[in-house]
Amino acid sequence: MRQKRGDVFRRGGTYYLPEPLVFTGQDSGTKRAPVVFQNYQNEKPVISGGVKLVNLDWRPYTNGIFQAQVPQDLQTDPPAGLDLSKAVIEATRLRNLVEFRGDDKNSARFISLRGLTFRHAAWTVMDTREPLLRSEWAVYRGGAVFFNGAEDCTLEDSFLDQLGGNAVFVNNYNRRVTIRDRHIDKACANGICFVGDPKAARSPLFNYNQRNRLEDNYPADCLVDDCLIHETGRVEKQTAPIEIDLAQTITVRHWSIYEVPRAGINIGDGCWGGKVIEFCDIFDTVKETQFVQRPGADHRAIHPRGRRIQVDGHRQ
User: Fold this and answer.
1) Contacts of 88 (CB under 8 A, 6+ apart)
2) Domain count, the chain
């Protein structure tokens, strides 16, 4: 799939990845000639982090349970009532399907993913342990599409479907990442995360005596525009369709968010400011936690803990 400067087309079908597809600074395009990985015409390529299991010998076990010999490292979830004689069996394998991998010295630049479907990312629930700043929330730094050291890259016109962890994670140093025209459905954890490095904050307040050498290792100047996200948090409940922590100048606009267990948008701190939420339709949130109408309660459609956050033109 790797070419420099130009359009790379994927035909319809399912592409099972043996390992994450990684973009680095060597794959970068330019402002006038970006590299675009996209679907061919109206065909629907699926980027899968799973593996298709064929020629399985299914045998009755007990109480309607069937068993078959599979590779030892696979995770499976067989649903009740499934007709195994007609089913296509796919097991998850990878947690990250696509990675943009760089840093502030050598970033992955001007690369776009367009018109793709992402499925079959593995669960991360038991590894969601890192505490977020000024929050009781925790996070796993990974996602089906993982930005780490990207500049001027985009994910657009794509479908992220039934993923076992976060759908998109914008991690540490990233600049001008744009996510637009996208549909996220039934992610088991967060929809989109913008999370920086606690070392970038002057006083991260994990302990009051801490001070850090300031760095620029956080997402900034990013846009999420014209998207639909629903039914996230299918397994991990302390999640949100949009999670922002240790990030600067993040704009979320023209979004529809619904059917989620907790907040629709969670902003964990006020670091560097510049968060703008506008023209969003947010409803059917806090479905699995109780709403408490008191100052400081964290059960609401938009949950901002920090300051300098503009919320305009939305409906809750």
Assistant:
1) 52
2) 2
For the domain that residue 146 is a member of, what is the CATH number? 2.160.20.10
Residue 1 lies in a domain: no
% of the chain surpassing 70 pLDDT: 85
pLDDT band at 241 (very low <50, low <70, confident <90, very high): very high
pTM: 0.85
At 230, the amino acid letter reads: H
Enter the tokens of residue 112: 């776009």
26-35, 190-199, 269-278: which range is least confident on average? Answer: 269-278
Q: Which domain holds residue 78?
A: 51-92
Q: Do 241 and 308 fall within a single domain?
A: yes
Please work out, in degrees rounded to the nearest 5, the angle formed at the alpha carbon of residue 171 by the alpha carbons of 165 and 175: 135
148-180 b/e (C-beta count within 10 Å ≥ 16 → b) = bbbbbbbbbbbbbbebbbbbbbbbbbbbbbbbb
Q: Beta strand pairing status for 138-139 and 130-131?
A: antiparallel
| Gyration radius (Cα) of the chain, Å | 20
25 and 37, same domain (yes or no): yes
